[in-house]
Design goal:
With about 270 residues, the protein is mostly helical. The protein has eleven helices and no strands. The protein has helices at about 15-50, 55, 60-70, 75-105, 110-125, 130-135, 140-165, 170-175, 180-220, 225-235, 240-270. The protein is globular. The two termini are about 30 Å apart.
């Protein structure tokens, strides 16, 4: 009996779409239900009187404290300062780490030259450099920018370099056999294959950058959300502390979501190899 041949091998299987839709719906329902249950349990403990609200607060108290902060001009100044520190430090890290990681991955001599410094910065906790950074840059915004930059630059650089090293050697050999130029090999094989590694570094670097904002402002600052958290903690305002933590948590989730969306766009650009 003749077997029908499907010539449209690259067409997506329609049968997988309901499964994907169901999986996304199931993830939303289960995740949302779990989060709601945790918030309700937290609220119940906060109102039960079994635990002092000074230590645990409750979602409604945190929301009330946050609503009060939204009416305060100092809060918006703190938010602006922390936002600028993150954007400047993280943006500078991205602008330097990606090109430098590509260059180190492509050049063995450059790797030998810079690897000791990269490995040292990766091994040494950047928090230990804070006293020196404050001495050099003061307690203003630029000391925090330096901390954010140092926290984000190494993960992005190392992941980018690893992406170059992970390029498929067989594809490169085939391209060379057809006399492809180094620029063509880089743009069509190396760079597309590096994209997942770069975005992994960007996501991890974003988390380290937010940590740099918090640590820098907790250590020495006159403004910022981290400074607000430190001041609230010193005066036992647990509601404000939780609200400050919530701001950083939501910011991290938004940044990762934006990077995921951007990565999906780049995934369409990458060649589909079967």
């Amino acid at each position: 009996m003749a077997v029908p041949i499907n010539f449209d091998q690259d067409a997506p299987d329609e049968r997988t779409r309901p499964a994907e839709t169901g999986s996304a719906y199931e993830r939303f329902v289960i995740g949302g239900s779990t989060l709601l249950a945790v918030l309700l349990l937290w609220e119940a403990f906060g109102r039960s009187g079994l635990i002092d609200p000074l230590f645990i607060s409750s979602p409604t108290r945190v929301a009330q404290a946050g609503f009060g902060l939204l009416q305060d001009s100092d809060f918006w100044n703190d938010l602006r300062v922390s936002g600028l520190e993150f954007l400047f430090g993280y943006g500078l890290a991205v602008a330097i780490a990606i090109p430098l990681g590509l260059a180190i991955g492509l050049s063995r001599r450059l790797q030998y030259m810079l690897s000791p410094f990269v490995d040292t910065l990766n091994a040494v906790p950047r928090v230990t450099l804070l006293p020196l950074i404050v001495i050099w840059a003061g307690i203003g915004i630029w000391s925090k920018v330096v901390v954010v930059f140092l926290g984000a630059v190494i993960p992005i650089l190392i992941n980018t370099q690893s992406g170059v090293k992970a390029s498929e050697a067989r594809f490169i050999r085939v391209a060379r056999s057809f006399s492809a130029s180094r620029l063509k090999i880089f743009s069509s094989i190396v760079l597309p294959g590096t994209v997942p590694f770069v975005f992994t570094g960007l996501k991890y670097g974003a988390g380290r950058a937010l940590l740099g904002v918090v640590v820098g402002e907790l250590y020495a600052s006159t403004a910022g959300i981290g400074h607000m958290i430190a001041a609230a903690g010193n005066t036992f305002q647990t509601d404000l502390v939780f609200f400050g933590v919530l701001i950083f948590m939501v910011t991290g989730l938004i940044v990762v979501a934006l990077l995921d969306r951007l990565e999906r766009r780049f995934e369409r650009w990458r060649p589909d190899v079967h």
